[in-house]
Amino acid sequence: MTENRQLIEEIKRLKEQQDAVIVAHTYQNGEVQAIADMVGDSFALSKYCANLTCSTIVFCGVGFMAESAKILSPEKRVLLPEQSAGCPMADMITAEELREFRAQHPDAAVVTYINSSSTVKAESDVIVTSSNALKVVKNMPEKKILFCPDQNLGSYIAAQCPEKEFVLWQGYCPTHHAMQGQIAKAMKEKYPEAELLVHPECKPEVTAYADYIGSTQGIIDYARNSEKKEFIIGTEMGTLYPLSQENPDKIFHLMDPELVCTNMKLTTLESIRRSLETGTYEMQVPEEVAAGARKSLTRMLELASR
Ligand code: 13P
Ligand code: SF4
């Protein structure tokens, strides 16, 4: 504990010295979320980072998130404390595969989940996050949509847009996709008073049992505003930290103990201190790629604000 206090003091001192802001995704370890200046889902963090005036952003999350912050704020130094914190879903489609996919459907618009590489973003027409995907897609004039890489978010959005035609890339999040409908059902039977809140990266057999489906921020907002006192959470376990902090009078059960993203859990207080001290690992996105990706991300911000 004393060791942690010392580390936290050092992080605060380095942060001031470097004119840095620390942001953390809700899947980060609780101790990381506790020292962050801003905690949120991928959309909230993208918007927040795009408007910051500091010179350095320490992004506690995974690579594609820090990359997006760099693309939206090219003049800033963006640090990812753990270089190997990646997202397996983001690696499930390459720019070349996306070009081929588009060539097979030349009349369609490419909608890409933010959980993707910057080269894939640069090949896309617009980016979405789980909290704005429905609004962005509804606001697009195009009738045919190629959605990548997440098949589950894609089918969840497609079900709510019967006026459009969707072709889905078959990527998935290994953590959420592994969840099973029978577990969701069993948890609802075990806690009959509880509401089940799940992320749209879960399969339809899981979301079928949900009382609410939404991004991590959506889940947090829903639990805050609900009159219910008990919830089953169908997303990564880190989300239990802000939920419990904000709602000490409510009970939260993780739907399945396997809801852990090991990449998100790599970042520690020690790695944040090292990151600030040594300037590692600085995100670099070649400007020719960043320019294309920025266009798709900016279109997201614009369509999501209508
Ligand atoms: P959010 O859009 O809820 O931040 O989710 C990001 C993510 O990686 C989910 O697995
Ligand atoms: Fe990627 Fe899944 Fe981890 Fe989110 S939870 S960062 S989609 S692997």
List the helices and strands and how they pair.
Elements: H1 2-17, E1 20-25, H2 30-35, E2 38-40, H3 42-50, E3 56-60, H4 63-72, E4 77-79, H5 95-104, E5 109-113, H6 118-122, E6 126-128, H7 133-138, E7 144-148, H8 151-159, E8 165-168, H9 174-177, H10 181-190, E9 195-198, H11 204-207, E10 212-213, H12 216-225, E11 230-234, H13 240-246, E12 251-254, H14 269-278, H15 287-304
Parallel strand pairs: 1-2, 1-3, 3-4, 5-6, 5-7, 7-8, 9-10, 9-11, 11-12
Helix pairs in contact: 1-14, 3-4
3D architecture notes:
The strands form three sheets. The protein has a four-stranded parallel beta sheet with strand order 2-1-3-4, sandwiched between helices. It has a four-stranded parallel beta sheet with strand order 6-5-7-8, sandwiched between helices. It has a four-stranded parallel beta sheet with strand order 10-9-11-12, with helices on both faces. The radius of gyration is 19 Å and the shape is globular. It has three domains: 2-85 and 264-284, NadA-like (Rossmann fold), CATH 3.40.50.10800; 90-172 and 288-304, Rossmann fold, CATH 3.40.50; 179-254, 3-Layer(aba) Sandwich (Rossmann fold), CATH 3.40.50. The mean pLDDT is 97. Helix content is 44%, strand content 16%. It starts with a helix and ends with a helix. Helix 3 packs parallel to helix 4 (63-72). With 306 residues, it is α/β, with parallel strands linked by helices. It is built from 15 helices and twelve strands. 1,3-dihydroxyacetonephosphate binds next to loops.
